[in-house]
User: Which sequence fits this backbone?
């Protein structure tokens, strides 16, 4: 495909608020992965995190992450969900503990090794973290910056293969008509698909999703979760997603981890969640439990 032959659609602005319902087979949406049958890709052991002058945000967190699974992390606000994701990709540092990713200790990585590790772990944010003044195409290509030198990044020096890959992923996510639209012209659901595309172009082994549907309406939320599940199944990419919506977590997850006050209080398949386990996860914060 010749990227230069693509042109901006004249009616992009008129269509910017439209959402296309993702044609996802119901039986595939309900398919569950037997996590015991797949290899461990990351081990998290005894992670503690506290900030100066505060109590521990995370307390002795230990669990394994398996290749290609959809793992949801649920819990009330302040439980430590976002902190945990940011520790996994080294955006912040824990006070103690070990993280082994593909048999390598990530917490001791520096320089080139750390940059390489981060290309294997994509991230999607609640508020998208896009450059609004740039196009969808340019924002997606930013996912390749981890492979570039500083000079290549400054001058946006991307190969034709990278540009073609960006076009392919944008098409897969159903936003081809917006490819040259500025990101501030998009709806929330479209912006989140740009975030997914930017993560995918990294060729990651894991994608971390920090509250990816918290700002979206129910239909857009369904579209995003179905894309994430399809990515895990078709591309064998592990998806780790923080959620407030328990029913969404139960529908789309292979496994759920419940956090309360910085500790893991549940780690099992969705079918194992009971009223008692919900109470352990949310405690006195049951009013935060969102069921759509």
Assistant:
């Amino acid at each position: 495909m010749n990227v230069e032959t693509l042109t901006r659609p004249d009616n992009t602005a008129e269509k910017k608020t439209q959402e296309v319902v993702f044609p996802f087979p119901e039986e595939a949406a309900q398919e569950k992965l037997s996590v015991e049958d797949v290899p461990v890709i990351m081990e998290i052991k005894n992670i503690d995190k506290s900030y100066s002058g505060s109590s521990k945000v995370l307390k002795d967190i230990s669990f394994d992450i398996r290749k290609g699974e959809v793992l949801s992390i649920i819990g009330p606000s302040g439980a430590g969900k976002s902190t945990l994701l940011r520790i996994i990709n080294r955006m912040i540092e824990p006070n103690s503990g070990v993280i082994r990713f593909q048999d390598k200790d990530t917490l001791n990585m520096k320089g080139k090794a750390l940059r390489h590790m981060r290309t294997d772990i994509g991230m999607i944010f609640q508020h998208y973290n896009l450059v609004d003044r740039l196009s969808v195409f340019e924002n997606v290509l930013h996912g390749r910056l981890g492979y570039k030198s500083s000079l290549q990044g400054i001058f946006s020096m991307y190969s034709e293969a990278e540009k073609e890959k960006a076009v392919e992923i944008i098409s897969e996510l159903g936003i081809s008509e917006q490819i040259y639209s500025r990101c501030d012209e998009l709806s929330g659901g479209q912006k989140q698909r740009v975030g997914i595309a930017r993560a995918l172009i990294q060729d990651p082994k894991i994608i971390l999703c920090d509250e990816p549907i918290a700002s979206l309406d129910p239909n857009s939320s369904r579209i995003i979760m179905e894309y994430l599940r399809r990515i895990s199944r078709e591309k064998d990419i592990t998806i780790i997603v923080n959620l407030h919506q328990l029913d969404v977590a139960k529908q789309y997850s292979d496994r759920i981890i419940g956090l309360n006050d910085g500790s893991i209080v549940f780690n099992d398949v969705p079918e194992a969640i009971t009223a008692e386990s919900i109470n352990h996860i949310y405690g006195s914060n049951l009013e935060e439990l969102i069921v759509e």
